[in-house]
Amino acid sequence: MKLSSREQDGVVILEPKGKIMGGPDASLLNDKLHDCLDTDKKKVVINLAGVEWMNSTGLGILISSFTTLRNNDGELKLANVTDKINSLLVITKLVHVFEAYDSVDDAVSSFKS
Amino acid sequence: MNKPIITGDTITIPSDQDFLADVDMFIEGVLRGWNIDESVIADIAISVSELVNNAICHGNKLDVSKKVKVRINKENGAVIIRIGDQGHGFNPTEVANPVDDENLLKEVGRGIFIVKSLMDSVEYESVDNGSEVIIKKAI
To answer: Which of B23, B49, B74, B92 has the most CB atoms lying inside 10 A of its own CB?
Structure first.
């Protein structure tokens, strides 16, 4: 997995690309998230458009990110959840945990309301 | 052994998560050669990655000197994949239900649940010097 990041309207957009299956993947997103918190950036969108699929390790990373931000008065939202990832979120009932939007723009806008 | 070994229908790796991608590439390559629908390939690949992760971490306790073996076949209209480790196996009935409210925000514990949801069958066997999980998916 490769990970890039950018900012849009005060929201950090994290953009993983590839498959999230475990091993070296786990620390990349976690490290990036802690970088955000260290610089007081607490609004984060994870854009999943580039993620072909993820397994339970990937779901665990999303949950870890969600709870870490929440515990620091921040918020995590998802954008561009693919059908395959959405099916896993439904199977595991995590679809009730995460706010998901059809686009990064919509996810960013949701922080204003 | 410090790298994957592929012989015919089998890939063998050291118990190191750095080799997860090698197993994925091998399995998806075989499945694409059988002209299987991409969505089914993804379901199988996800399931294999879960079980290989479990074999590395739980079965072989991250001992890189121990091996994980993955064998893939096609039989009677189904893909059959065997994931073997050198551990003592586990009791699948003792795995906590990840969709219970108290487990929903746990970061781990969903692997077997996901495999059972995506595959048509999941079986467990003791084999010489280890354990094996056998998954089947109709194609």
So the answer is: B49
